[in-house]
Amino acid sequence: MNYGRRLIDGITMYRVVIYALLTIAFAALTLSVAGVLAVAPLALVLSFLVITTGALLTHILMVYITQAASNIESSLITALILFLIVTPVQELHSLFVVMGLGAAAVGLKYVVRYRYRHIFNPVALVLVLASFFSYYGAEWWVGSRYLFPVVLLAALVVVAKTRRWELFLTYIISSSIFVVIAFWGTTLIMSETLIRHFISWPTIFLAAFMLTEPLSLPGTKRLQYVYALIVAALSSIPFSIGSLYGTPELALLAANFMTFVIERPERLRLTFKNKREVGKDTVEYIFATESVQQHKPGQYLEWTLPHSKPDKRGIRRYFTITSAPGRSEVSLAVRHSVKPSTWKQTLSSLSPGAFLYATQRAGDFTLRPNAKHHVWIAGGIGVTPFVSMLRQAEAIQQPIQATLFYCNKTEADIAFKELCDRADAVGVTVIHILQKPDAPLSIHEVGYITADMVKKYVPEWQHATFYISGPPSLVGAYKKLVRKMGVSARRIVIDYFPGLA
Questions:
Q1: Are residue 29 and residue 122 in the same domain, yes or no?
Q2: How confident is the model over 134-185, as pLDDT tens digits?
Q3: How far apart are CA 457 and CA 403, in angstroms?
Q4: Alpha-carbon distance 414 to 381, whole Å?
Q5: CA–CA separation, 331 and 319 (whole Å)
Q6: What pLDDT does 117 receive?
Q7: Of 264, 285, 291, 272, which is closest to residue 351 (Cα–Cα)?
Q8: Does 384 share its domain with 481?
């Protein structure tokens, strides 16, 4: 299990999705050649080639026209999802149609958007438009009982990478409930209906590969649950309004529109200002924005930094915002390793005035307003959410009743030490947990956090809310520790820092 987790975390989210989709496509071709899947092998191969060609050529053209940041992996994912949904064809005129669908799906990303960010899931949008104009319909042939084992395995890998288990399970469970409601009292056998709902309908595929599409997904878990319920209801309960019928793609568009109306997501154009060292091998990068930022301390952004010959980690990375809200700038902190990724190398070589883009401001790792006391546990660079919280408290001069347990190997590894040293001015007590203490600190412990240590520094721990941020291994270990102490799950907030997400 740990090996699998490390393997997944060593690959970017986009590439995990691409590999998963290619695995499904290869399985489909294998089953087709074996005569198991009722689709001609030639139709599969030709449809795959023309859809991906149309999508990637359009991507290159739109990047050239709009001068937008290029992420060809995103366009390839769009093409692969579309390929697994539309009916495979081999007739010449039909091939031109599906090539047009691939081109349109990518092109609509650049046309139907708001503040540099697309509003709708591009595959769902092009399928609804094609159906409306009677050009082509979605067959969702990926929802086959023969492909189900491969689709399920690929879906679980993707959800494990994106850590969208709550969203995934919310959709799976609620769609099952809606199916029972819709067909209750009919002549259908309910158990067989539910089985078909999973193995002969694209339920799993939709939940893992389309529902979790990051750029059209709400930024908070509460809205994500609502989002999943809307898609589940509209995709599981049969309905028609005139010539409009309930379909998975229409359900996604309805949920996308809800997200747009409520959140008005935007894509930030950032101008690099300067950088400063905040710890050993740790640098904070500051960017000017075109407007005042109103994020919640603890939230993150997806940062896009195009560069030549990117390594397997790609051109997009997730990093927590370290700056306080209410300013016309945002910042992130990066720990540079001996062999940094090409993304970090490019970041470190930026000159003032250089541009990059950020999207998907999201995250629920924020202060719970009704908590009597906050216990923060951070490991290494995982301290960044708390940096934003501390800076916000300083900016508005509003104390936080919190205790920060900050884990590092040595004192030299402590990031934002100056901020930690003055944290008591805003009501935050900082306890440094060092494995190899090389100098006396005002308050520090040696080794690892224990239950006795928490009780020693936080007498009111039984009524506190715990926040844990850092590498997955640290988060998992300390979440287990806190649960063993008797703290309920609803008073534990976690923020993984996989690094390559």
A1: yes
A2: 666 688 999 999 999 999 999 999 998 888 899 999 999 999 999 988 888 7
A3: 8
A4: 9
A5: 9
A6: 67
A7: 272
A8: yes
d(CA 406, CA 409): 10
Query: If pLDDT is split at 50, 70 and 90, which confidence band does 497 have?
Result: low
Identify whether 253 is part of a domain. Answer: yes
Backbone angles phi, psi at 78, to 5 degrees: -55, -45
Query: If DSSP codes are grouped into helix, strand and coil, which group holds residue 436?
Result: coil
SS3 state of residue 238: coil
Q: How many CB atoms lie within 10 A of CB 362?
A: 22
Report which of 445, 446, 444, 451 is spatially closest to residue 478, judged by C-alpha positions.
451
Q: Which two tokens stand for residue 11?
A: 């690959």
**Cα gap 429→434, rounded to integer Å:** 16
Residue 377 structure tokens: 């546990």
d(CA 424, CA 403): 9
Which structural domain, as residue segments, surrounds residue 468? Answer: 374-496
| Token code pair at residue 264 | 């008005």
- Report d(CA 275, CA 354) in Å as an integer: 13
The type of residue at 475 is V
pTM: predicted TM-score of the whole model, two decimal places: 0.76
The token duo for 303 is 């940062």
DSSP element (H, E) containing 170: helix 165-183
Token pair recorded at residue 489: 């799950």
Integer CA distances (angstroms), 325 to 192, 388, 390, in order: 52, 8, 11
Residue type (1 letter), 306: P
The number of C-alpha atoms within 13 Å of 456 and in the hemisphere containing its C-beta is 10
* Domain closes at, from 205, 234, 263: 263
Q: Which two tokens stand for residue 170?
A: 């919310």
Residues 6+ apart with CB under 8 A from 1: none
Mean pLDDT of 282-293: 90
Mark whether 109 and 237 lie in a shared domain: yes
Which amino acid would we find at residue 89?
V
* Length of the chain counted residue by residue: 501
Contact assessment for residue 212 and residue 229, using Cβ atoms and an 8 Å cutoff: no
Distance between CA atoms of residues 234 and 228, nearest Å: 10
DSSP string across 279-330: ETTEEEEEEE-SS---PPTT-EEEEE---SS--TT-SEEEEE--SPSSSSEE
